[in-house]
Amino acid sequence: MRQNHSFKTESYTIYGSLSQGQDLMEGILKECRKHHITSGMVSSIGSLRQAGYVLFKAENGHPNGYGNELTVSNPVELVNCTGFICEDENEELDLHLHGTVVEEDGSISAGHFLKGKNPTLITVEFAIVCGKGVQASRTFDENLGFRVINFSK
């Protein structure tokens, strides 16, 4: 059974924006590399040309993976987007990002964003909060059946 874990650390914040056409996740990861960030929390708002995401699927009330890729092919407002920057099993930079988008007609969609599927329409503004000395590692948890992030100092 996975145990809760937490700790306090000093932090600093990176502020920025992504330009038109830049992918949401790839753009944020590019900025992380630029500032040598390997762990942190990101929050963003803006607009996207389209949105690509997945939702978890459940069987008998228990999550058992992700469903098919969903796409909103129309321009959307990115009204809420939050995630964690970490490294994966291969020590490659990774981003676990969830968000909510709204279409022009008011239709709302939300989910787990996919890399390369969310190009910026006008701009995306973001803030990345980084803890000094924090390591975040996203690995597969056999008991849960999902990749999860573990934090350590």
UniProtKB/TrEMBL annotation:
Segments forming domain PPC: 8-152
Lineage start: Bacteria, Bacillati, Bacillota, Bacilli, Bacillales
PROSITE patterns: PPC
Official protein name in the record: PPC domain-containing protein
UniProt-listed Pfam families: PCC
Gene3D superfamilies referenced in this protein's UniProt entry, alphabetically: Hypothetical protein, similar to alpha- acetolactate decarboxylase, domain 2
